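Following up on my earlier thread - several people asked me to post the actual chain instead of describing it. Fair enough. Here it is, all 112 residues.
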Amino acid sequence: MPFGPEWIVIIVVLLLLFGGKKLPDLARGVGRSLRIFKAETSSLRKDDDDETKTTVVQGQTVPQGQAQPQPASPTPQQIPPASPPLAPEEQARRLEEEAARLRASAQADKQA
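Reply from S.P.:
Thanks for posting it. Predicted structure:
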């Protein structure tokens, strides 16, 4: 990788902004962050691969090749609720609402 004038300018700006003593700490922190980010993204990919290889049959997770056929007429207890998966934003909103309710009830208990 040849060092052109762009790289020299970038290095000089970094030295001016952070100083020579803080650059190793900055680089170390960036390296740790990248390592954590890579580990998390690879685990997400692995989880996605695992989910596509399994199937839920009568409430149990079964590998895809071993899925058994459903009975012809399931009883009402066997029918899972039809609710679409929530988006992360919706999950966060609901958790925040629940936390607010819990805080309010804790405040009411404290005052009583």
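The radius of gyration is 26 Å. That should answer part of your original question.
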